[in-house]
Amino acid sequence: MVAVENGGEEIVVREYDEVKDGSQVEEVERKCEVGPSGKLCLFTDLLGDPLCRIRNSPAFLMLVAEMVVEEKKVVVGMIRGCIKTVTCGKKRSNDHFKPLFTKVAYILGLRVSPSHRRLGIGLKLVCKMEEWFKENGVEYSYIATESDNQASIKLFTLKCGYSKFRTPSILVQPVFAHRVKITRRVTIIKLSPTDAETLYRHRFETTEFFPHDIDSILNNKLNLGTYLAIFNDGLSWRGVDELLASLPESWATLSVWNSKEVFKLEVRGASRVRRLLAKTTRFMDRVFPTLQLPSVPDVFRPFGFHFLYGLGGEGPLAMKLMKALCGYAHNLAKQHGCGVVATEVASLEPLRFGIPHWPRLSCTEDLWCIKRLSAITNQDNEEYDGDWTMSPPGMSIFVDPRDF
């Protein structure tokens, strides 16, 4: 716990207490989710669990900022952070590349009550969280924010020493009332967690941000499965080892994370006209189901979603296979009553053009900022001369579903 004087007012930054802080944290979240007048905003319903977005990480912490207001202690801000080990680069070892791992921390859920902004509370929360990171041997800290969130960008880049790092795209597709048809030429195979881990470590371990504990993710109850798509062409499935020994010319894979069980979303601030148009698309889809018209799900009420991660593949037809996998994921989300499916991919990802999405619902340029906290070491505990913050972006990026 740390107490800081701020213009005569004491700000106490301490660890979140689930018993006494829950209702106050929810109130701050509610106030911070209110968008500008007349504009759409996305409200996040944490389902009564402020720790839901970090609970599945290897190590996590939530801090709150507390002040005395009218002789009562009031929570006026909070921040969440988690720690993991990921791939930060690669080096050649004999005839193949070897991944370089580093310990990173991710900051998310920074909130300051609108009535207590411009008091330096956000900066104090970030600094205190970074202290915990350093105590746990973290080498890099990073955050994700909207590219147009100037307040957040200025706080982290101008005051906290972060630099702009990557600009992945968040792609969102509505879950329609009808199922997506998948061509019979494609076979989709659900891999066991063991086979999925083998595939990921063999083909994606050198991908930037690949989590060292991929097995924990694949065996998590929120993981709905890893799916592999190949063309029929007379091939028979005999296990991932045989697949890796003799890969087909084209293949694609992805995993599905059930974010619906973690939190729900709701679009607020929509005009009556926008709501009516969305309702009309659903009505027309019900009246003419055989036409399979695209309809907008009711995102103006709380809805759940599935997150697609670990997307990858190879070959000239990998894009078509990825489209088939996304169709399969859409149907799975429909079965679970989700409003949308979402994913996040690198801006240079070759397979992104095979991922169906609605531009209006998507974010073409999310912004990740990064900061180097200490000396860099690889998994062999050897000094690594490079500085990850200065490295150019790769073609792909592995987005951890626990961070989304």
From TrEMBL:
One of its GO terms (molecular function) is acyltransferase activity, transferring groups other than amino-acyl groups. Residues 11-183 form the N-acetyltransferase domain. Keywords: Acyltransferase, Transferase. Transmembrane segments: none annotated. PANTHER family: ACYL-COA N-ACYLTRANSFERASES (NAT) SUPERFAMILY PROTEIN, N-ACETYLTRANSFERASE HLS1-RELATED. Belongs to the acetyltransferase family. This is Acyltransferase. The lineage of its organism: Eukaryota, Viridiplantae, Streptophyta, Embryophyta, Tracheophyta.
